[in-house]
């Protein structure tokens, strides 16, 4: 039986938030979030354009996820997530985004800024960017031309996430960016590494396009677990089957090998679909593990159920 002392979770946005809440509920000693930094919309996009910093939004959400389940923790979560109203220059900005941006400018390091906020808010873990530079996502998209065979480039996280076409492949700009060293160390030192759930092309796969992260995943002794999305998302993965989600991982990271793929049992009801999924998982060296992980009445993962699934898979050795 394997006990989880160190977990490192890769991703971004709401999917990573739920995974971190799962880890938090298990009282794991060392939790590290490794977060994509390619957002170019909303408050994050404005900060990125005006200050030239990496977008803080997904990093802020990960910090909020790791605030403690106690009154002071709830207060810090509310403060970090609070957005200014009105119509002025601050309208729509999240307090946490501005705090991180100011501290990044003060320290000259986003990692130092994140660590300072995590300590000050008494967060139950550490949050790191996958790279210490802002990234752009560019996708090859079909279905935007009268000829469906023609693929056109679409650049920017928001544009890729909302494209009416079908995303075939994504890449990072700059190509082959340097991974955050602390993120690499967190992967190498972990007992468990999770990837997903989340926006597949804009939060999950970008981690696999950073060479240092791929190398760390290849060399870590951690159990590597992919948490599959519950449904395809409108826009970037519209119409995708669970099997195709997995094929996209192997297409973008041919050397990636993982141990388990956690799938919500209710989303794959037939034996035929399960057999197809198992074959796709085998291309990553993985076994499929079916669990009840859906939050009732939503398309989100339930943190308590996901926590139980992670423990169950680790107990299997």
From TrEMBL:
It is found in: Cytoplasm. It comes from the Bacteria. Keywords: Cytoplasm. One of its GO terms (molecular function) is LPPG:FO 2-phospho-L-lactate transferase activity. GO terms for cellular component: cytoplasm. Pfam families: CofD (PF01933). GO terms for biological process: regulation of cell shape. InterPro entries: CofD (IPR002882), CofD-like_dom_sf (IPR038136), Gluconeogen_factor (IPR010119). Required for morphogenesis under gluconeogenic growth conditions. Belongs to the gluconeogenesis factor family. This is Putative gluconeogenesis factor. It comes from Corynebacterium canis.
